[in-house]
Design goal:
By secondary structure, the chain is mostly beta strands. The chain is built from one helix and 14 strands, in the order H-E-E-E-E-E-E-E-E-E-E-E-E-E-E. The longest helix has 8 residues, at 48-55. Mean pLDDT is 78; it is low at 42-46, 48-55 and 164-176.
Length: 176
């Protein structure tokens, strides 16, 4: 018994060409074009608030269970939730969280005190002393906000940043 049948010659059917014996198909694998990577997904534009936040300075954190002694200098925002002993000089904001403690002098653009600061604040644009905040030391700032319940012991100077807006100058420019 044969596994295949030899084609036999048959009479051609009118209008159709004679059948040809089947030939095995040969497949060759040829290198094709390299697959193209999927296009990057389209992302909607972020709201303006997120875009400005990305342009802002980054924030460094001293966690609640950390105690550090040293010096902090640089650009960026600093948040202290633990304890820090030393001077802080940043071109950015300093936030002292509730139950946090900072001992040392501070220079920053904006200082928010919700914990305890023992030391002087010098040349800040704005200082915010919250209800739970305590400051022991001298303060020199452009503006100062003091919440009811906050505590301060020391000397405070604020509002002297812009001499042109001072009301103590005579209007006609002459001394009286």
């Amino acid at each position: 018994m044969a596994l295949w049948k030899e084609p036999t010659k048959q009479s051609p059917t009118p209008g159709f060409p004679p059948e040809q014996p089947a030939t095995p198909a040969r497949f060759e694998v040829q290198p094709g074009p390299e697959p193209k990577p999927d296009p990057a997904p389209v992302v909607a534009a972020a709201p303006a608030r997120t875009q400005t936040r990305a342009a802002e300075k980054s924030e460094s954190l001293i966690a609640p269970d950390i105690a550090i002694e040293g010096k902090i200098e640089g650009a960026g925002h600093v948040r202290v939730a633990g304890r820090f002993k030393g001077d802080i000089n940043v071109h950015g904001d300093l936030t002292i969280d509730p139950r946090a403690n900072v001992t040392g002098s501070v220079r920053a653009e904006k200082v928010t005190i919700a914990g305890e600061l023992i030391g002087n604040i010098d040349a800040a644009q704005h200082v915010d002393l919250t209800q739970s905040g305590a400051l022991t030391g001298d303060l020199k700032a452009g503006t100062l906000t003091v919440a009811a319940g906050s505590r301060m012991r020391g000397h405070a100077e604020f509002g002297w940043g812009d001499e042109k807006s001072s009301t103590h100058k005579p209007a006609n420019g002459s001394a009286s």
